[in-house]
Amino acid sequence: MSSLLTSERLDAIEARLQSEGRVVAAELARDFDTSEDTIRRDLRALAAAGRCRRVYGGALPATPSRGPVSSRARLSAPAKDALGAALARLVLPGMTVFLDAGTTNLAAARALAATPDLGGATLVTHAPAIAAALVEARGASLVTIGGRVDPVIGAAIGARAFEEVSAIRPDLLLLGTCGLDPEGALSAHSIEDAVLKRRLAANSGAIATACDRGKIDTAGPFTVIDAATCDTLVVEAGLPPAIRARLAELGPEIIEVETGA
Amino acid sequence: MSSLLTSERLDAIEARLQSEGRVVAAELARDFDTSEDTIRRDLRALAAAGRCRRVYGGALPATPSRGPVSSRARLSAPAKDALGAALARLVLPGMTVFLDAGTTNLAAARALAATPDLGGATLVTHAPAIAAALVEARGASLVTIGGRVDPVIGAAIGARAFEEVSAIRPDLLLLGTCGLDPEGALSAHSIEDAVLKRRLAANSGAIATACDRGKIDTAGPFTVIDAATCDTLVVEAGLPPAIRARLAELGPEIIEVETGA
DNA sequence: CAGTATCAGGCGAGAATGCGCATAATCCTG
DNA sequence: CAGGATTATGCGCATTCTCGCCTGATACTG
């Protein structure tokens, strides 16, 4: 067992936190073959750097956006609902629409489920929570993409899902994203997720994505596509003029939504 | 065996509060395998933080009009929960388990999601609602089966799902059923569903199914398999002796569950 | 109004924690 | 390259936290 450098161990702990949604101090001490004191120091350091949230007995992901989906669901609900409703209005009768994972798209799915008649649209998704919401949708057929489900992303990813996704050519893709950086690139937290999103984007007739305030000028480690590739960008109304102007230059149609904030 | 961290339990209680609209202290104590005192302390803490409203015997959501939770049909919950919990106890570490569609299996999925550690089990399902619940499951990997989702059954059926299901050999199948007729045959409402169930049954190492009172001595139009093929039959305690005796003759192990009815 | 279920607070055991200190490893500088 | 400075680590100890149990008070039920 090769002993890890301290910063390596910190990275490993953070990675584990992301993949499992939680870490327990005692388990880490055992797995890294070190004392619990060292682990506690690590966790304190990570917490001080904002890379995790310290709790008694271990640690949890710092920002809910990196934790398991359940803990994110209740965050900033009004804004998400408004953005989701705007995305749902892009769905026209007869369309085939792919709903990517993410809480904003979950809000879109709820809005779709509340629509009286979707006019024979076909809705496709690889996210169980979104599929569960869309089962209620009226006047639409629902297709799910199977595969190994990543608990952090809350959707099927990996080879199996990639294969299935590759066979679909949606008219519209509602793309989930974890960040829109200043250069206009959309990014994801996981490589598997990014690869899947890229394939989806390549196969789709049109692409729409929604960015709440917190996602603008942030980036995950893996780039998906350039925002210029999108056709529609849904954002909250009342953004700073500088950012608003920069988004306008990217190319997509900008839809501003009043979130009441 | 890792148990839940305190703050995780608080989150889990709150999540359950959101999805089910209420929580009962005694049930939480049972599901989290802790004392009621601890649960009561948790509920007090949540209430103090404004995250729930404390009531005698349990708690209610803090915000009563919490949006689109309409999808949660709170039907004959106690019996379903008890049957579901009994099914969940059949899942042992390392197993590959297929969860068929149905409200009883959804209850089983919730019970599995509340289990602290499933010990590396692999959970497979074609029902979006069940998959959504299982995303929260700890210590297990989740695989979904994709395909066209039938809104009545609430699961992927048809050729695509059949093809995917055919490639899986679960150790245990939690079979959903819509009726157990007097001759001991399990049945389904749809031919597609029945075909899928038969294939699942043929591929599975063991089969378990739960029947509440309302399902005994009823039958759907399509026969799935004979109940004698099952290994475990979970029923409510307190059935009429005649029926109880007839079930005993079918062959499967009978597990009686106290539903408090 | 009696009986039962639930509740809040206190108590104590055990685990987790933070801190100071000693030691070993590593870095850095002359 | 040598020696001091910095850093990482492990250990002991006092403190804090959690949790199950107990007791008396309070809320539901019939």
Short descriptors:
261 residues; 24% strand; globular; Arc Repressor Mutant, subunit A; Rossmann fold; alpha/beta; 3-stranded antiparallel beta sheet; 7-stranded parallel beta sheet; DNA-binding; 15 strands; 2 domains; homodimer
Major beta sheet, strand line-up of chain A: 6-5-4-9-12-14-15
Summarize the largest interface: chains and residue counts.
Answer: A-B, 41 and 34 residues
Percent of residues in helices of chain A comes to 25-40%
Bulk shape of chain A: globular
What pattern of helices and strands is seen along the backbone of chain A?
Answer: HEHHEEHHEHEHEEEHEEEHEEEHE
Number of strands of chain A: 15
Low-confidence stretches of chain A: none
Number of domains of chain A: 2
Using only C-alpha atoms, the radius of gyration of chain A works out to 20 Å
CATH architecture verdict of the largest domain in chain A: 3-Layer(aba) Sandwich
CATH C-level category of the largest domain in chain A: Alpha Beta
Oligomer: homodimer
Mean pLDDT figure of chain A: 87
Q: Report on the biggest sheet of chain A.
A: 7 strands, parallel
Structural class of chain A: alpha/beta
CATH topology of the largest domain in chain A: Rossmann fold
Commentary on this structure:
- Two copies of one chain form a homodimer.
- Chain A has 261 residues and is an alpha/beta fold.
- The first copy, chain A, has two domains: 6-62, Orthogonal Bundle (Arc Repressor Mutant, subunit A); 71-257, 3-Layer(aba) Sandwich (Rossmann fold), CATH 3.40.50.1360.
- In chain A, 39% of the residues lie in helices and 24% in strands.
- Chain A contains ten helices and 15 strands.
- Chain A has helices at residues 6-20, 25-31, 36-48, 69-72, 77-88, 103-113, 128-134, 158-166, 191-203, 241-250, and strands at 23-24, 52-55, 58-61, 96-99, 121-125, 140-144, 147-150, 155-157, 172-175, 179-180, 185-188, 206-211, 222-226, 232-236, 253-257.
- Chain A has a seven-stranded parallel β-sheet with strand order 6-5-4-9-12-14-15, sandwiched between helices. Chain A has a three-stranded antiparallel β-sheet with strand order 1-3-2.
- In chain A, strand 5 (121-125), helix 7 (128-134) and strand 6 (140-144) form a beta-alpha-beta unit.
- The radius of gyration of chain A is 20 Å and the shape is globular.
- The relative contact order of chain A is 0.11.
- Chains A and B meet through helix 4, helix 7, strand 6 and strand 7 of A and helix 1, helix 6, strand 6 and strand 7 of B.
- Strand 6 of chain A pairs antiparallel with strand 7 of chain B.
- Chain A binds a DNA duplex (30 and 30 nucleotides) through residues 6, 25-26, 34-38, 40-41, 44, 56-57.
